[in-house]
Write a structure and sequence with these properties.
The chain has 731 residues and is α+β, with helices and mostly antiparallel strands. The protein is built from 23 helices and 19 strands. β14 and β15 form a beta hairpin. The radius of gyration is 28 Å and the shape is globular. 41% of the residues are buried.
Amino acid sequence: MDKVDLNESVATEVETSPQDERHYHSYKLSNSLHCLLISDKTTDKASAAMDVRVGHLCDPDDVKGLAHFCEHMLFMGTEKYPDENDYNVYLNANGGSSNAYTDMESTNYYFDVNADKLEGALDRFAQFFISPLFNESSTSREMQAVDSEHCKNLQSDFWRLFQLYKSLAKSSHPFSKFGSGNIQTLKDEPVAKGVDIRSELLTFYKTYYSANIMKLVVLGKQSIDELKLMVDMYFKGIPNQNLSVPHFPGEPYGKAELAKRLSVMPVSEVRTLEMHFPIREIETLYQSKPTRYISHLVGHEGFGSILQLLKDLGYANELSAGEMRSCSDWSSFGISIDLTDEGLESVEDVVVIVFAYLNMLKRSGPQRWIHDETSTVASCSFRFLSKRSPINYTCALASNMQLYPPCHILSGPYKIYQYNPQAIVECLECLTPQNMLLTVMSKKFEGETKNKEPWYSTEYTMEDIGDDLIKRCEEASVEDKFIANRLHFPEQNDMIATDFTLKSVPNFPKDEPRLLLDNSSARLWYKPDNVFDMPKLNVICLLQTPFTNESPKSFVSSFLWVSILQEQCTSFTYLASMASLHCSFVSSKNGIEVSVSGYNHKVEILMQRIVNAMIDLPTKLTNEVFERIKDKVSKQYQNISFLQPYQHAIYGADICLEDMKWSISEKKQALKDISMEDIIYFSKCLMKQFFLEMLIHGNVSPDEAKKISSTILEMLKPSTLHPSSKSSCST
């Protein structure tokens, strides 16, 4: 299997966004540590990240979670800085922070600090990889910290399902391991076997922590030459053992593990269908990204999509598709569907609908125009990439360096460089019922399951999918009677921007927005983009009204109204999101907030479509849609009880400190009493009377900003409602 040569031409110039004014330098130290230096004279924070190409797949069989435990122990003092708190004390004293994570194949350490304190942080950070102490005195405490992390995740359906998939893999494949670790695996079992955990830590560290499989990113305000002097000084001492990057040949699932149906009992109130397909590794296909093509179509939400048909049938609320796992030797493609109660009773029909669409994709073959659309949008996303915080940026780039050659460290995750229909076909051919794990999660399985996963105690039943369903999936067609050709390729996307002309507004202050319009109907705040020079626009509209928070019933009615509006806008907002033009609808105590952000070229068109949907909502709302959304909101309220303790504390404080803040029990009771007629009446009240407050910021002239606000007012025609007015709209 061909691999991307990550070491070839390390000093190659890094491809950057045309808007990126930072300076980059990729090079290797004498110990073969690959470094990426970033000079940003405007930053107020410096940052660094180190990604080590070893994760929990390398855990020894008799000490599960050792890679994660090693990550924790590296923070606990070094020979040069033996105080186990020295690193964090230095960072905290200088406006900094730090964190780390252990994945299947990598462990990533990262920090940020005030820009003028980078050198001291780098000195301390480098010692992690040169001379950690692994003190006995720290071992027991950090075991408890690892165990606490595991305990925190015990009630998380995400972690429970992830470990269930791992436990059901071939026992001979390292993917089957329990990677988090806990007291049982790090203390009890090793002690029972006579294993010295500190000795195991030292062996693991010396075996895998080698400079030649590490990737370092450093970002600071210093010049490249100054950064290079610091990096060379502090990181040249990392030992290089000339290791090969660990690989794990073979596949975690074979015929014996696939074509299975899992019925899983969740913790929270969910009804989820997951279709999980193991496929070839795709890291070497980053230039063509075949799974992005497939996920774009399978996860589409517009007319002719799987989701649209499932919604029309009352089977589903949401659908997502894409890579579930991506490893160096294998990956998997997943489809996740949030079911309704009716969909839960019709799981096999839902699965057949998905395969009807997949079969259509296979028969029709790859479509060049779809690739071209996704490629165009991807290129624009990279071309006009916004700055990320230094700590998030370095962390992500250090991880990227393990996957992409030096020239594509920045652009690799975004751009699609070539059209490869053969790779698309190869991945599509893996999406078969015989190569699938079909998982259904629902509370309805309570008391009916037959098995229990050992690490999270997840209750489940596993059985064969069955020949009848396999046959239905293989023969499924968009022409089937109950599908009736309602599945087809999406329409061409008319929301893709093509005009990126920058508009100059001379002599406008850079400090804050200015009031452009103030009358009895609206107030418009305006600020052009005279800082970043991006062809992007942010439009925030607040329809101010007291109707959204007069009572628990009005608050919940407002929330339902927003949820229904999102539903009715999906056909065009999804196309907009694919073109990097995003919108959101929020119900607050002050009214309804509508936000649009992205390339300015098509913002006004999107705003007009949203306003039209607001106007049409009462006439287009059906009882089926209302009941489905009401049920979805009910589940959201029920799942609040499964939040983390600190989230409950924050919510409790809000209830105590905020006026007109309704409790979950009040919202649940109000939801029961709300009918479709209540929502229609609420909508009419809202559209009839509100005060419009707007902020328009970005690549737009004052006249264009005024036009956007006047268009909204002309379309909605509200009665005058001053922001201080108090009206009533009992629903």
